[in-house]
Amino acid sequence: MPSSIVELRSDTFTTPTAAMTAAMVAAPLGDDVYGEDPTVRALEERSADLLGKQDGCLVPSGTMANLAAVMTHAPRGTSIFAGRESDIYAYEAHGMSVVGGLAMEPIETDEHGRLREDSLLAALPEDHGDPQFAIPAVVSLENTANRAGGVPLTVAEVADVARFARRHGMRFHLDGARIFNAAVALGVDPAVLVASADSVQFCLSKGLAAPIGSVVVGSAEFINGVRRIRKMLGGGMRQAGVVAAAGLVALDTMIDRLAEDHANAATLAAGLAILPGVEVEPVRLRTNMVRFRLTGSLTHAEFIEATGRQGVRLAELGHGVLRAVTHNDVDATDIARALSVMGSVLRESVPVLV
Ligand SMILES: *Cc1c(COP(=O)(O)O)cnc(C)c1O
């Protein structure tokens, strides 16, 4: 058995830091459904502050954050535009439709995860006034775009989608599960990056390494609506300060260090690119993900199984793509070990000529 695991399947595997667990134990608590948990309020205010919005609302997951935000914007029977490869469309059990009563309009994204104006325009009904058509209410954009390889979209690219939404009377939601990865990679203030959005959700439980939670931010009136939907969905948590305390430590200590994850991912990508039988998907700017495929005789399942036996865990993403994600529990030594394990598995798979 390998002495330790190099967990590269996802940044959701991060475990809380010692400072987080200490803060969780010490946090002042109250009943957050009454709005009386001081640690939750502190996290919500700090989140809103960081992202330049009026208020915030802690929810148990990114999925619930997206659902509560979009349901607050969009009455039942209206529609939401989201990328065909987006988390909302691909990985959230179609809650927008099933729970929110919304029609989902999947939009083709380009190789950077952008929703281009021509694709958005093509999804609009021809005549807004005609009662037979759905009423488009929300556009949701992912930043970074997970299935595009974690590429960060720029301030201008985000603002392009905001302009489309505004022009067509729609609200603009940012699924910013990894918005701080985007801000750090681009070197911009996160508040500037999300300034054009009506609402943003970000995950505490991914690269920021907190165990649980997402925060939705937006106007004070919008957040009141989110609180109501959150309660309806069963996400009203009582002494949630236990969770929020780790989130506060995450915001204080884990944002700037995302740059290390990005550097480790760059090292991993460069090391993979020179291994035999590996094709690394290029990205115009890397955050914490590396997507690649194998061109030799090994199937992806065989490769994952073989590296896993040596303690290096990788994910298969579908569409024939393998993925490695760097995070706080993976350091430069782990990256070197992952490369050495992957290299030896690939070399062993090459038939020896005699
Ligand atoms: C992970 C993720 C979510 C959902 O978050 P959960 O906490 O897993 O529900 C939403 N959007 C994106 C882009 C994500 O990566």
Automatic annotation (TrEMBL):
Give the matching InterPro entries: ArAA_b-elim_lyase/Thr_aldolase, Low_specificity_L-TA-like, PyrdxlP-dep_Trfase, PyrdxlP-dep_Trfase_major, PyrdxlP-dep_Trfase_small
The protein's matches in Pfam families, at most eight in alphabetical order, are given as: Beta_elim_lyase (PF01212)
- Does the keyword Lyase belong to this entry? yes
List required co-factors.
pyridoxal 5'-phosphate
- Gene Ontology MF terms in the entry: L-allo-threonine aldolase activity
| PTM annotation (N6-(pyridoxal phosphate)lysine): residues | K206
Give every Aromatic amino acid beta-eliminating lyase/threonine aldolase domain span: 7-293
Q: Does the keyword Transcription apply?
A: no
Q: Which residues cross the membrane?
A: none
Sorted alphabetically, which keywords does the UniProt record give?
A: Lyase, Pyridoxal phosphate
Q: Which GO terms describe its biological process?
A: glycine biosynthetic process; L-threonine catabolic process
GO cellular component terms attached to this protein's record:
cytosol
State the source organism's domain of life.
Bacteria
Q: What family is this?
A: Belongs to the threonine aldolase family.
The protein here is known as: L-threonine aldolase
